[in-house]
C-alpha cells in the first residue's frame, strides 16, 4: 500500500512524507463516552475511495476540504484511497495531498471499495472514521449531524439514509425500486433495523471499527451491509441521518453484477450467523450498550433457527388442528369444525411461538400478542374457509379430499403467519417502522 502523507497543517500534525502506521494508535476511550478531541491525532478521518475517477476527484476533495475547514471545529484528515486505478487518478490524488493541508493519498494494488475502506480505516489514528462517495451525491451539510453522535459518545455507527423520514432524494424509478427492494430483502432475511444499507455516506467510531472490521469479509459493495449487520447484532447503536441526495447519472456501478454479489453476500452472512461462525456473543460482550442479557437456554436468535423452531411448533399445531377437525366435523359440520379447531390451536400456537421461537418471556404484552395473534388467525381462517367453500362449490368432496385441501391452505397460511409474527406481532419494541419498508 503506497501512501502520500498530508502537508503539515493545523488540521493534522503528521508532517509531510511521514509514513502512516499500519495499525490504529488512537487512545482507547469508553465506547459510551465522548472521544478525545485534543492531542495531535485528528478527530475525524474522511476516506474517499476512488477507482478511475481522475475527472471527479479534484472537485470532490476541494469541496470537502473547504466544507470541513469552515464547519468542522476539530482536527480532520481527508484520505484519498485509490484502489487500482489505471487512469490519472493517482497523480491527481498526489497533487491534492501535496497542496491541501490535511489531505493524504493512499494507493492500493487491488480494486474494491470495501478493501480500500478496510485498509485505510485500520491504518488511521483518528477517533472517528468516515467515508463518502466521490460523486458527492449526498449533501455535505449532513456530515456534521453524521459524526456528532459518534464524537459525543451517543452512538457507535452513523449512516446517511435516503429512505428515512425527512430525506429528500432525486433519482430514477429503477434505482429507487432496486434500493427499496434490497433493503426489504435485508429486513426479511437478516432482520436489519436500519433503513438504508447502501448510501455512500457513513461513519464509525475507531474503537468499534477495530472490533468489527476483522470479521467483515467482503471487499466490494457488500462491505457496508456486512459491517452494519455485524454492528447491529453486536448491540452497537446505529444513528441514521436523513440526507438530501441527488443521483449521479454518470455512475459506473454495474447494477446487475452488484445485485448478484449482494445476494451472495446475504446468503454467506446468513450462514455465518446461523452456524455461529461469527463471534456475535463475544462482540456483544465487547460493544453492546447497557446490560447484556444472554439468550435464554434453547431460544434461537437467528432467522434459520427461528424457522426451525416455528416449523416444529407449526407441525404440532397442524396435527392438533387436524385431530380436532376430524373429531368435530361429524358433530358440527365442516365450517364450524374448522373455526373451532383453528381458534383453539391459534391461541396455543401464538403462546408457543411467543416463548419458544421469538424468546419473549414474562406476562408483559401477552394480551396484546394474543390479540394480534387472533388477527393473524383470522387470515388463516379466511384462507382455509375460502378453500373449503371453493371446494364444495366445485364438487362433492370426500373427507380425504377435504383434509388434503385444508393442509395445502394451512401451509400457505403458515408462511404468512411466520412473516406477520416475526415482522409485526413480536417486532422488537425499539425497532422503528421505516419508510423504506413500505
From TrEMBL:
Span of domain GtrA/DPMS transmembrane: 309-426
Name used for this protein in its record: dolichyl-phosphate beta-glucosyltransferase
Transmembrane spans: 307-328, 373-391, 403-420
A GO MF term: dolichyl-phosphate beta-glucosyltransferase activity
GO terms (BP aspect): polysaccharide biosynthetic process; protein N-linked glycosylation
Residue ranges of every copy of the Glycosyltransferase 2-like domain listed in the record: 46-211
Listed pathway(s): Protein modification; protein glycosylation
Span list, region Disordered: 1-40
Family from the record: Belongs to the glycosyltransferase 2 family.
Reaction(s) catalysed (UniProt annotation): a di-trans,poly-cis-dolichyl phosphate + UDP-alpha-D-glucose = a di-trans,poly-cis-dolichyl beta-D-glucosyl phosphate + UDP
Keyword annotations of the record: Endoplasmic reticulum, Glycosyltransferase, Membrane, Signal-anchor, Transferase, Transmembrane, Transmembrane helix
E.C. number: 2.4.1.117
Pfam families, per database record: Glycos_transf_2, GtrA_DPMS_TM
Location of the protein in the cell: Endoplasmic reticulum membrane; Membrane
GO CC annotation: membrane
Membrane topology classification: Single-pass membrane protein; Multi-pass membrane protein
PANTHER family in the record: DOLICHYL-PHOSPHATE BETA-GLUCOSYLTRANSFERASE (PTHR10859:SF91), GLYCOSYL TRANSFERASE (PTHR10859)
